[in-house]
Amino acid sequence: MEEIGFLGMGIMGKAMAMNLLRHGFKVTVWNRTLSRCDELVEHGASVGESPAAVVKKCKYTIGMLSDPPAALSVVFDKGGVIEQICSGKGYIDMSTVDADTSSKISEAITSKGGQFLEAPVSGSKKPAEDGQLVILAAGEKLLYEAAIPAFDVMGKKSFFLGQVGNGAKMKLVVNMIMGSMMNAFSEGLVLADNSGLSSQTLLDVLELGAIANPMFKMKGPAMIQGNYTPAFPLKHQQKDMRLALALGDENAVSMPIAAAANEAFKKARNEGLGDLDFSAVHKTVLGDKQ
Amino acid sequence: MEEIGFLGMGIMGKAMAMNLLRHGFKVTVWNRTLSRCDELVEHGASVGESPAAVVKKCKYTIGMLSDPPAALSVVFDKGGVIEQICSGKGYIDMSTVDADTSSKISEAITSKGGQFLEAPVSGSKKPAEDGQLVILAAGEKLLYEAAIPAFDVMGKKSFFLGQVGNGAKMKLVVNMIMGSMMNAFSEGLVLADNSGLSSQTLLDVLELGAIANPMFKMKGPAMIQGNYTPAFPLKHQQKDMRLALALGDENAVSMPIAAAANEAFKKARNEGLGDLDFSAVHKTVLGDKQ
Amino acid sequence: MEEIGFLGMGIMGKAMAMNLLRHGFKVTVWNRTLSRCDELVEHGASVGESPAAVVKKCKYTIGMLSDPPAALSVVFDKGGVIEQICSGKGYIDMSTVDADTSSKISEAITSKGGQFLEAPVSGSKKPAEDGQLVILAAGEKLLYEAAIPAFDVMGKKSFFLGQVGNGAKMKLVVNMIMGSMMNAFSEGLVLADNSGLSSQTLLDVLELGAIANPMFKMKGPAMIQGNYTPAFPLKHQQKDMRLALALGDENAVSMPIAAAANEAFKKARNEGLGDLDFSAVHKTVLGDKQ
Amino acid sequence: MEEIGFLGMGIMGKAMAMNLLRHGFKVTVWNRTLSRCDELVEHGASVGESPAAVVKKCKYTIGMLSDPPAALSVVFDKGGVIEQICSGKGYIDMSTVDADTSSKISEAITSKGGQFLEAPVSGSKKPAEDGQLVILAAGEKLLYEAAIPAFDVMGKKSFFLGQVGNGAKMKLVVNMIMGSMMNAFSEGLVLADNSGLSSQTLLDVLELGAIANPMFKMKGPAMIQGNYTPAFPLKHQQKDMRLALALGDENAVSMPIAAAANEAFKKARNEGLGDLDFSAVHKTVLGDKQ
Fold first, then answer.
1. Which of B17, C88, D124, D225 could form a disulfide with B6 if both were Cys (CB 3.0 to 4.6 A apart)?
2. Domains of chain C by start residue, with CATH
3. Which residues, other chains included, contact A32 with Cβ-Cβ below 8 Å and sequence gap of 6+?
4. Which residue of C has its CA nearest to B265?
């Protein structure tokens, strides 16, 4: 792969760009607050003065922005990606954005002759640093193939999922299963406790069985102590449940468990728990015990 | 531990008794059809002519029967455990039985001065052969402690959960979470498929994330091929959901996800899927696609 | 109809027996606390000194007791119905009891050669006084036919539903629909209120439309004022939901709405609302607004 | 009230305009296919050549169009309402449209200085002919007050609900309760039938009790014969459930019963029942019995 552009030096972007540098890629970085690029420069990165400047210089540019407005801004604002993207250049948006944002960016890039790939990741700070992200790519297949060497050092695994939008959909499906599981887990913890069993023992038993999984292991001990420090805020999880249900509605898929879980998360929001971790739905199940 | 009695040479019991023999325990076995004891005898086991005869000879006797009627039968029928159990002797029922059965046996044993432990296991044929069962014991603590050396060779881990009944309750809680998860998983598989995503890719993505677990890994590939060969029959899973909900009712625990999952399993029963694996609830979610 | 016996002079029994007297029936009454019979005697009733004495005197005897223990007690205790029931005599239990209680009484009566009818009623104090009850009879058809003249003055309508147990089942089905409707109604009231609409206007609109019904009209105004004075306690409604779901389980009927409503009632019990009216589930839906 | 304009001579509009004529109002009508105005003219109506012409002539104009595109068309197309609406004139849209359509029309009318009222109705052909509609008005209060004489002859009752959008919201709340009730009713019918009770008797018992309502009475007999001729198509009912749940989501109202009902309607859509009456959800509950 030629020199790679990288827009967005937040916690995730910085770690991902660093991995590229460490594995010998030439990287030109940009960030709204330029000082956040310093560490990268020490490791050999060049700096571009605007997204457009980065795109001009590089055949491929990756964006890793914090949210949809930021993702739109680097593309459409003055000095944005759109000013220099053209045939022969590619833009890979690895931010987590909604389908609308993704398709707006996709249309703008391709209408200028550029190639586009959405490639949201699963995994947070630690996996980003360790090059252990899971990358859900969708859009231009040729661009995906060109990006594989970069994906290989940023992630442990990348998937090509077809047309633009499929990356976001896959994340919704996964998060929908995760949200329902968190509810089932919460109900189990409360049922055990109220039935005179030890919640800790339940965690130990679960850990040894067919449904053992990292989420139960990571979050269970905090939950039984009433600690719901936000990693993935409940209101975002509820939004993903809602979007997954809407996707099901479009396709006439009846999902009674997801629907019940969504209402439980809404109950939690109603109780003011929206900014806590999504595991705080446990507090709603606990009810008066709390 | 002294010589151990072992009643019931079904698939599970035979594998468990064999592990005891392999690790140097002296074992006296009994089975309704005596020929099923032959292989054990070749490996050094003695044979008792009745449950009572086994109990008479051994300080501790383990029962591993196929169902509640069989579990009651070895205790209460002519020549049953009850005829020889007495102070200084213990009976450990490792069968999976309901709370009523367990407490009937418990009362009978203790009223004769004997010690009683219920110790249902989690895990099937393979873990039984490999000594990798998880043992959920409840009842007489001293008997539990005496049984630890035997439990250590039959299982990878044993838990003491308090009073008789708690072993069964813990299994219900675990199976309730499992049943809800299976429903969430099924909804996710169908949502992916109907939204134009590959079910196999969903399995691959799940396997790499925070909710990866052996059940998804084991059952997922079969499910997307419509293969629901029974390991744990759906009607039994639904019965456990119902019992878990009843336990919640007693303790005023509201469990909307478990309730929705229970109704989905009932729908599957209504569609004639009760004897298939509990993963066949997937077929119900699929609906007309099938 | 010949002279009728009447056991149980509670609020309901007294009103029902009074209607019989007013319409010219000869009635012999009994009550545990005999003084509660005085008013009836003023209106021409005779008094029996025990249930057995009443049965001895009358060809047909009606029981209207407060709960299953009381219903069992008048039949099986010393001086009970069972001592004098015999071929040619009938016993009609109009109490609301569970299926087990009903079938115990049925078996005892019929094994002595007597005829038995269960005939629980729908309607409370006012309909009892006005002869406007709805009577759900099941058991001996000939006894039902003989009782029609009495049923005609106590109720506005009676049904014969077949074998013993069907009266109780029909009540469960009706109460299940009622409990689900109460939940839907509560959700609607809260949705209107939280969306900036007037709850009172919602009541007015509902009253004019296709789903107008006495329950919404009667309970709605109290509910929007947070008044849940018990007419039918929430814990009893939840018990009926549970029994209806169990009936569905036996017959493989999947009832996701009833299951969700049952969990909402359990949530309300968990919040300490079990002794309020079943409309108090509204308070649970309100959540933090309260 | 001065001369009234009336746009849209469909089944509903024709019956409503006829009632105005019958009660002595002067009415100028318009319809895309002009011949549909003939009968009105025989009863004394004038005809306008376009919506704009009607608005020019009348102080108040009512629109009753079949769907959102038609409602938008009479306002915005060439010769539309917008060309002549101005200060001192009012437009009352009685069509059933979504919130977006309503607010687009509202903004256009008021930006030209006109008054606007949305006034969707509850009730179909027969109530329209009999002047028995229920009118849910929202928007300009003064216009509402001016329209009361007309509303009084078209409907049995009208409500003023505040700002534009509230009429649509009130309909959603009512339809949400109705959809949940239809599900509860269906579950009850199937539970009765599968438990050996007569569905017809259940209808009779319900009719006499606290939850008796026109919908059960009207639709019940057809449902138990498997007749789901569409009056209100299931796919529209499901859409209203979805929109009501979305309204709840905005306001953090948890509605588990509505959510379960919505999934049941989606199941029915998945089974190809979307174009039948919404009572066809009964067929889904029936399952294999069908």
1. B17
2. 4-163 (3.40.50.720), 168-289 (1.10.1040.10)
3. none
4. C254
